[in-house]
Design goal:
This protein is mainly alpha-helical. Helices cover about 75% and strands about 0% of the residues. The relative contact order is 0.11. The model has no long low-confidence stretch (mean pLDDT about 85).
Amino acid sequence: MFDYGENLGNFREKVVGLARRFNQGAPKPTKVQLMVLAVMAVPALFLRQYFIAFVLMILVTLVSLLTNRFELGRFGIELATFSSITMATVFPPRIAAFLGFTYIVLQIFTGSTPGLYLVWVIPTYTVASYVIAGMQVSNIAQIGIYVTLISQSIFATMTFLTSRSRLPKYLQYATFNLAFNILLFQSFAQPLLKLVNS
């Protein structure tokens, strides 16, 4: 006979065990990191635009930690691209560039994936955010998809030039990443901007 109570108890134990293992394996923030985060949060307490930008920082970090923890990175799941491009349409160029830099650095280092490629990835996000902030963007979904496609093409080219053996794996990631960002931009970019500007 099927015992619901026993099976529910086993399920709870598995969930609690998984949560404990995740907590033990997750990187612990240093005092300096927490202080920087607190300073960056100050404008978010008073201005809606900064609050949303700050919430996106937290989401970028959480998604990066989770994809790293559960080894989902190859599926192209990340929020730095979406966050950088949408916020670039809200803020002036220098702030947008700073946010693009911050989002990608948070993603790279919380995902435990720093390496040679950060030499071209970080500048690409920073410059793209700066350029988009100076444009009149009428279709955020379209610009988001174009920038994702262009940036992934740059990253694939640099991967080919520096580490050809990794190119097939990177192309798999880039394909998933493009599909994921198409979904994000088409579904959430316009509602997010309406929330920021309301």
